[in-house]
Structure formats: structure tokens, C-alpha cells
């Protein structure tokens, strides 16, 4: 037990040291609020404005103290024990934990891994044995046996180059001793293991056999260099056509085009006129972004040798012809956030996620001291019969319910696994006539273990990640804040009619109508544009009674006039002069028309409570909250550690 005592002692010691480093910024009724908590929320909510100036920090500290007072009161009133609130928090935690585990422990790891690897290009050769995913099991076993024998020969000192030439099944590379060229991360889907071997193998060494979606590989790394990245290029191609013209003539034509460009001719125009690349000539020779190992090595070397945008190369000879290459742009990977977003899009549906999750599961098993009892599983398998592959199967009776596996000090029984199997009806039906009892149960057991391990890891996120702990604290306290503010302020302001009326009476002068405009709103229901114009002109001279009388019996026309009181800034009358005879422009659409006519000004006057209710309730809530916070400050004294506060302020 000594080792167990030592581990406990070390864990406690580390925890104590961590708390010692995290200083107390202030206390609420003796309850500590740590500096790290304040800094986390300060930086999160202020973002780029979190400059730690004295004014900024003290202003936010004032707000945070009020927040903590309310949360402290909520806990004292037992709101954190309310079942519905606990369930809400539990649901949020489960949802957050799943996404956090995926993003933090899998996605972010993979993205950071790719970003780190993108700084290097790796020169590789390989020995390949074909075994595609759709190949038979016999073919896969045979391929594995062959690659294992090849690896053994390498271990015995036989040259990599010679074995690649004689035994590799990659026809395109075996003649070059297995040489593939330079690659950089991320490799395409299905080649994550290849990528891992490529970056993890030392220069001059070869890897263990690894599996890709195409088959088995042994990789030899011959060089590593700083990554070239990607360059955006266009080109002019003069193809080699030995049957039509000698290569010397093609080279001469390419040089002539090059000389014309040197003299100032437009590259894109020259591409359109002379290039023999039918896919790009109409686009000024545009090829897009070029990465390594996409084109002929000579072409690639020349493209990446161009140092400035707009610079172009001398004619470069490749197997297909002569190229004049123009650099348009070099992809800028200096912004890590932009780079990570691009990488995430590239690997979003990659199989590396499944591999990374499997690796995470193995890591969690190791960290949690995972131990299993396979004998218990074997005994369970012996109890199975035909009904196992049907919906009729029932969990067997168990006298002692033995432990199947344990981790983190928690035992997981055979019965819990049996219930999982019972609920996995679709899987059991799917396995019928395809897998044996043993194979089917093993597959279900592996799935159960994986789910259990991931669930175990989710439950321990607070211990592993301070940021997750902070998120949960933020949401927990947010729920409490909402609930107690609802009880003490919002609901009270709506229900307390006596208090609301008294508040309104005491502050009535704050709820006044400003100077307003009385207008007559003319609404014409007619498709006759001429009639609408006629009414508009007549209304300029006459009052509404005369206008209504004149147009009362006009066929196909309906005229209404309503009196409105509008704010002076109302957009409907912005173009109307506020004086006698003032009118807004005539607004017409397909079936109607309308306009406004000035009818006088209304002096400022007192609003009724009903007219100002929304504003009054909002102000009454602010009043109740300020009174409440003032009372809380007296009830729960706050003590600020001024030296700790001063330590974070930037003068």
C-alpha cells in the first residue's frame, strides 16, 4: 500500500501547491474568489479590450463583486438544490462534455499535430504490399505475412533499395528503389498511419510495417527540410511534339515567348496566345495553388525558387515540355488561427479522428489503471445460445455478478455489460450468421468498453482542464443568478402593482411625452394614379372634411383620413415641413396611396402609467436591483486583497 499512499500524497501536494499559486482576489462573507477566476471571466467578456488598465479592471471588479453577492445569496437560499435547476445543469454539462472532449482532446490535438507537421517536408521511399480495404481476409493475411517477412529481411541487413526493387508491389516507385519524393501533412484520408510513420521515423531509418487504405508499407525517410508551403502560380506551356517539330524548335519558341515577356508583354495575354495547355490558356495560364509533389520536380523547384509575386522563370524543361512559370502569391501561414481553420476543413472527415479517439481511449485506460477479467467474459460467452442473435434473448441469471473490468477505482460488473448487450438488439441481429458467439460478444464488449471509457473521461474533465471547470462554474452560477434575479427583481417588478404605481408617482417627471406632431393621414384605396394625385393637390388647399366630401362618391376609389400624433423624428414625416400646409410626399404603390398633412404641434405632457409601463417596469427593476445589491453588500461583507489587485494592473 506504500505506493498508493505515495500517489495520494503527491496528488494532494500538487493540489495544495496549485491553490497556493492561485491567489485570493476577494472574499464574499469569507468565501474565496480566486484571481484566476476573475482573470478568466474578465478576459473572456472584455476580449481585446481587456487591457488591465486601473480604470478598466476596477470597473469590471465592481460588476463581478455584485455578481458574486447575488450568487452567494442564491446558494444560501438553497437554489442550487432545486431539482429542475440541477437537471438543467446536468444536461448542459453532458452536452458540453461531449463536444469539449471531442474538440479539446481529439480535434484540437489533431489540428495542432498537423500544424506542427506542416513546418516540415519529409522525403520518403517505401516498400509496398497491396491489401485494399475491400480485399478478402485471405489476401490481407497474405499481405501482412509478406510485409512482415520483408521487415525481417531489412532487420537482417539487406539493403532497402534492392528489396524495394525486387519485392515492392508499387510499380511506379519500385524502379526508383521505392522513391516517392517529398510529402507534407496532412496526407489524404486513409493515410494517417503513413503520415505518422513519416514524421516519427528518423532520417536514414525505416519504419515498422504500417497499414493504409491501399495496403501495407515500410517507409524509409531520407531527408527532412523546412516546408515549402504552397505557392500560387500560372504557366505558359510549350509541349514537346517530336513528330511535329524537334525539341530544339520547341525550346526556341519558349525562349522567344520568354523574351517578349521580358520586354513587357502581358503574361496572361502571352499564355492565351502561345500556351499549349488547353485547360489553363483561357485563364491566363492560371494553375492555382501548387503544393509539393504535385508536378514534375523540376517544375516544382522552379516555382518555389521564385521569391516575389509577379516574378517569372526562364523556360523550364520537364518531361512534357517547356514551362514559363509566374508566381502570383505565396500562401501566408503566419496567422495560426486562420491556418487552424484551414487545416480543420482539410481533415474534417478524415479517418484520423477514429484513430485518435482509439488512441485517447487507450491513454485513458492507462491513466485510470484499467484492468479486465477476460475469464468472466469467456464464461458469459459459454452461456449463449441461438436466441442471442434475436430479440428474444434474455440476460442470464447471475448469482455473484462478477467484476468484468475496473478503472479509476470503479468496478463494472458483468450484469451492466449484459444489460448493454440486451439493449444492442440491432447489433445482435446484424451479427447473425456473420459472426460466431465469441466474435459477436467481443465486438459488443469492445464497444461497451469504449463507451464506458469515454464516459469516465467526460466525468473527469473538471480535474484535467481548468478551462472546462471554469465553463461549468460560469454556467452553474449563471443559472443561479438568473433564478434569484427572477425571484427578487423581475417577477416582483411585474407583480408588485402597488410598488410600481408608487415608483411611477415618485418619478413621474421622467416619463413625459416630448413635443409631438399632430397629422392627418390620408389613405387612398385605388389603382387610379391620376385620382391619387388629384386628391393630394386638393388637400394642399382644403381641409380633410372638404376633401372627403369632394371624393366621397368617386367610383373605384375609397378615401380615409385618420388623425395621428407622431414623434417629430418619425421617419414617415421626416420630409414634411412642420408648419401650416406642410405635407409629406405622396407615396404610391400598385393598389393604394397615402400622405400626411401637418395639423399642429402638441406641447410636452405627462404620460400615464399604462402609456409608459414598459419603461417604468424596466426602471423599477433597476431600482429594486440596486436596493437589493446594497442590502446584500451590508449582509455579506466583501474584502478585496488590494496587493493582489494591484499586481495585475498595468500602469
The main sheet orders its strands as: 4-3-6-5
Radius of gyration: 39 Å
The end-to-end span amounts to 54 Å
Number of domains: 6
What is the CATH topology assignment of the largest domain?
A: Chitinase A, domain 3
Structural class: alpha+beta
The oligomeric status of these chains comes to: single chain
Percent range for helical residues? Answer: 40-55%
**CATH structural architecture of the largest domain:** Roll
CATH first level of the largest domain: Alpha Beta
Main sheet summary: 4 strands, antiparallel
Anisotropy-based shape: extended
Estimate what percentage of residues fall within beta strands.
15-25%
Global mean pLDDT: 91
Number of strands: 20
Uncertain regions spanning at least 5 consecutive residues? 1-20
Offer a quick outline of the entry.
With 651 residues, the protein is of the alpha+beta class. The chain is built from 24 helices and 20 strands.
